[in-house]
Predict the 3D structure of the following.
Amino acid sequence: MPDQSLFRIEPSLAGKRRECAAFARSPFTTGVLIYSICALVAFGLIYAGTQQVARKATVSGRAELTDGELKLYPNARRLVAQVKVKEGQRVERGQLLAVLHGLQHAPSSGTGEPSGYQRMSHSLMQQASRLQESRNDVEQSATIEQDKLRSKRRFLKQAQRSLKQSATTAVELLEIASEQHARGAELYKSGHLSLSDFEELQRRELQQKASIAENERTELNFKEQLRALEHEVQTLTKTRQANLRDVDTRLGENARERERLQMSFEQHLLAPSTGFITGVLKQAGATASPQAPLITMVRTKSAYRARLWAGSHAAGELEVGQSVNLMLDAFPHQKHGMLSGEITHINVSPLTLSELDVPWEGGGSAYSVTVNMDTTNPLYRRIKPGMNLTADIKLDKSLLVARLFEPLLLAWQRAL
């Protein structure tokens, strides 16, 4: 028995079609549709007549440092023994960054024998030790001789003081003897003193005079000995200084020879300035050559800027002070945002293809544009030299309606 439900649907669909057709032919529906379209057109014209749209130029470029990146090279082909820093680390001026060894001084593998550097270094160290011992011997012997001379000088000074005291006593005794001799002569003439007693007084006076003369000769001898002693001290001092100069000269030569040997074997790579490490290109165990940098760094006071290249079609509308939005290729702006900047310099002379150090697809000449970046943006701290970027340069603002009809106006002007 056939299904009757299909035949029951047809009258229902036919009725709905008749209702829709009646509604579509209604004057009310037509009026509402026309009024809606007119309202939308009016709203669009009002919006286009009041809304301003910024016109921009999109150019490419890259990030660079204002004073350049410092590249540190080994002074010869060397083996990297130690790397003391890592990328992003802050370093101070003179800080040790890496230790490199000379390849020609490496010890023989498997033999256990010391290398040529080790043998030469050991020999120079032994020579330096012997020279230092010789210097100590010179100092010690000179000290001993000086102590002996000082002791002898003290003895002569003490003897000289005793001689002066005895000379003073002898002068006093001579005065007494002379006085006694003079009184004895008077008594002898008057007959109150015998000849033998008078001769005894005369002998005592002569004896005191001889003692004084002897003291004077002894004092002269002491003075002569003191002068000879002073001369000996000066001679000893000069000899000691000459010997020390000779030993110090040899020690200096030994130290310079060891330094030259050390430099031929080992190089200490030091930070030339306070800053941050931007790259460690070789790790411990690798071979470094003087043609390739081992470590790169930037100074603390260095700042980043954007170097843009604009074609002739865009350069004519660029001006110093225009705002720029920078988008780093390494950090998509949809996720990390953009850096704001400002044009600070526009090169008036174009760069040819041979002068450009970047691939140029714009055709024709390119103009170099310098842009200062916003240093407060967190994205600024993640910039590295050489990063590629795209820049949107805001040229001017105009009404949306003018921008919409601008092609028509241009076509009309060209047709006239």
In short: Residues 5-50 form one domain. Residues 116-190 form the longest helix (75 residues). The first strand starts at residue 52 and ends at 65. Helices lie at 5-24, 27-50, 116-190, 195-265, 312-315, 333-336, 400-415.
